[in-house]
# Entry
Amino acid sequence: MTEKKIYFLSDLHLGAQYLGPRHEAERRVVRFLDSIADTAEEIYLLGDILDYWYEYRTVVPRGYVRFFGTLARLADRGVKIHWFIGNHDIWMFDYLRDEIGMEVVDGYAIREIMGQKFFLTHGDGVGRLRPGFRFIRRLFRNRFCQRLYSAIHPRWTVGFAHWWSAKNREYDRRYIPRFLGVDTEPQAIFAVEYLRDVDPTINYFVMGHRHVVADEPLSPTCRLIILGEWISQFTYAVFDGDRLTIHQFTE
# Structure
């Protein structure tokens, strides 16, 4: 009998213009999901899976049919899929939840997985946020602002969103993201404080958002995992009930 495992990945940014040919990145992710179909018990998608998504009440954006179809096929086989929204796929509501049968989580969740305690989140909402980013994050989550935004025709909003994302990525390319150290990295500082002040029984903090790969001990019984991205690294984490390890998808 095949040993079942838990998979974690984030920051695929599917649909981003800077990924090159639109279907190439999507097909790579589908090949990865197909490769774990027999071993996956649960899959945690920890945010920014899509570079942009706005889900209207009666219509949804075009594209991603291979990816969504693969998720549906896995769900139909009994694989539990959990999608934690990030700061790019923030406007995800009930469409994929109802059509695929997966869980959609906004924020964080603490889960008991194979006897270990996990703190799971995309990571954009933890730590000491820059004032500008904090303001935008609250604005995007405001229900009234969301309704106003939905009243704008998609021919304007979709193009603007992809332009905004591409401009931010151009800025990001001025430096190579790196883990700043447990004493400096915002997500690490948050995890250390949470472990100390809120719940010392957490075994793993697993996050995305920062586009760096990190596996850092926070205590003798707790580690911080930052998942990297699928723009150039194609990294993910696997938990087999004993160890949580980071891997790179290669073909």
